[in-house]
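Replying to the earlier thread about multi-chain prediction with a worked example.

Input:
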Amino acid sequence: MLTVWGRAESSATARVMWALGEAGVPHRRLDWGGRFGGGDDPAYRAISPHGRIPAITREDGFSLWESNTIIRWLATTCPEAGLWPVDEAVRWQAQAWMDWSAAPGRVIGPVRAAYRRAEPDADEMARTIAAAAETFAVLNAQLQGRTFVVGDQLTVADLALGVVVHRWFRIPEALERPDLPAMEAWYERLRARPAYQDHVVAKVSARPQTLGMGD
Ligand SMILES: N[C@@H](CCC(=O)N[C@@H](CS)C(=O)NCC(=O)O)C(=O)O
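Result:
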């Protein structure tokens, strides 16, 4: 049995849980990190050197950290799930989009920081949203004419990007955002997937749970 170490509402844990759900891999999850603590536990540091969540462990001693690496491992060990493109060019495009997922990860943070202020500053909100929209527009362009990020099938690229996009669309309706129709249509396709509903929509909020923590 695979064990996932990580609190469910963390974006990085949610990605891994979603991937496990898509692949149908039996697992259990332990609440770890954030308010649950454990990141500085030396035994945990032995499996996750930065003390960050998520990490996975298996009874035979195998362990792994970094959510996108865990997703790659899962996709290659469960090829029947179809998350790892067979075509070489598509497979490497998927890797590029996975690595690129750090970019929207960086721009959504300032939006959320502005949004969580007790007295939000309209200029800060507008500025951070405009900067984020510029980055998300890159993904929107890629999704034009495609069902999923690198083609007609859900892959590791979608798994790396689906959580941050959920956060973008969860910013309250009242806040003006430029239209990104291809990305919105893709988000609706993700929302139709039970594993995405269970592990992302139901668990990950737009508002940070714990200030000052990567979440
Ligand atoms: N690049 C890492 C990021 C890991 C990370 O920053 N995780 C956050 C939660 S999303 C964390 O561990 N925060 C501290 C904590 O929850 O204790 C990954 O994708 O696994």
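Residues 209-214 have pLDDT under 50 and may be disordered.

Feel free to reuse this layout for your own posts.
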